[in-house]
Amino acid sequence: MPGNLTSIGALMIGLAYLLGSIPTAVLVCNSMGIADPRQQGSGNPGATNVLRIGNKTAAALTLLGDIGKGAVAVALAYLAGLAGSALGLCALAAVLGHLYPIHGVAQGGKGVSTTLGVSLVLSPILALCQALSWITLFALTRISSVASLITALLTPLYAWLLLPELVGILTLIALLLVARHARNIRNLLHHDEPKL
To answer: Which of 36, 97, 100, 107 is most buried per CB count within 10 Å?
Structure first.
């Protein structure tokens, strides 16, 4: 039984990574006749950049798709019987798939929406806290990266309060998100980060 569980766990982690690698923004833009988001705007295949180069519908579909693939990855792992740290590793794998997809490690997104998706299954209250934090910060600043960075930094605190057994994995995810925003941080320091 332990061997089978280990095999199932490894399989689900791999599946989570592959689901995270689905290039939602690219697929949405291609289907709607919008330029490849990796070649336009900020070059980030995420909802914010799709909104800048495309339209609200494309951005909304990208957002929902990125949230959905994170949620499905963790939900499938849960249905397969995984729990605790094994479930957390599937969440991490899904986010890594989005950040560094199998089809091109330099072509991933920032991971904010996919993180929200995995949180939605791990703890709906955690996801609610993240969503409310992002919305509030964006309303105050009108800068997506500021809302994303501060929400990422708040996530370990939320995890400590709501999912203490996964605080380590969720902190790692938060740090990955911050690292993925390195360019935005440089822009913010030079007052060059655009408002939305």
So the answer is: 97
